[in-house]
Each structure stands twice: as C-alpha cells, then as structure tokens.
Amino acid sequence: MRKNSIKNTRINGEVQKELSRIIQNGIKDPRIAPLTSVVSVEVAPDLKTCKAYISVLGSEKAAADTLAGLKSAEGFIRRQLAHTVNLRNTPEIRFILDQSIEYGVTMTKLIDDVVKTEQRNEDEDRADSES
Questions:
Q1: Which of 31, 43, 90, 96 is the most buried (most CB within 10 A)?
Q2: What is the pTM of this model?
Q3: d(CA 25, CA 28)
Q4: What H or E segment, with its residue span, contains residue 113?
Q5: Backbone angles phi, psi at 63, to 5 degrees
Q6: How far apart are CA 32 and CA 62, in angstroms?
C-alpha cells in the first residue's frame, strides 16, 4: 500500500475518528485536558506505526500533562482501537503535540490588531483633513 493511496487515506480518517472518540469518552485520566482534539493521523503503509497529532486548548502545562496522560494510556487506546477498527495490524501509536491551531488563532489576533490600528489611523487622518 502506497502512502498517499485512497486506502491509506481512508484508514487515516477512520483511525482519527476512533482516536477522537476514545480520547473523549474512553479515558478517565484527569491529566488529559477536556479540550483535546486529534488534528490528523498518519498510519504507515505497513500498518505498524501511527503518528497522531494532538491539539490541546489551554496552557503549556495542560498540553504537557495531556501528552503524558495519553502516553501512559497508550496500551488501553491501542486495545480499544483494535476492537473498533478492523485492521490486519493495530498500529503502535505515537502522540505528537500539534500547535498549528493555537498558532492560527495567534496570527488571526495579530492581523485583527493591525487592521484596527490602520482603521484608527485612517479615521484620525480623515478627521484632521476635515478640520
């Protein structure tokens, strides 16, 4: 199976959906933040390994605690995944912190600040020219 094949894309989507469900409903670890989402999943073509990109809304400490909680529950998550997703091999999951959503929110806020400053400057210039 090739890396970008339709089958691999379908498996990635199914594993991502099930991982999200397991993390939200199946794990009772208090270290895992309630606003944890699975951004994307990359299952290797041989179905042996899987990289799960996790996004945590909150502080750096909450993200680190969530990652530690997920790593300690890795066996449970893998077993639940084996029960719900019918694959030849259940992949070994590696959780990776993805900060792209947080980065996007920060950039949007910065752009909004620049736009507000520009509008304020235009309004001041217009008021000065009318006087």
A1: 43
A2: 0.76
A3: 8
A4: helix 100-130
A5: -65, -45
A6: 8
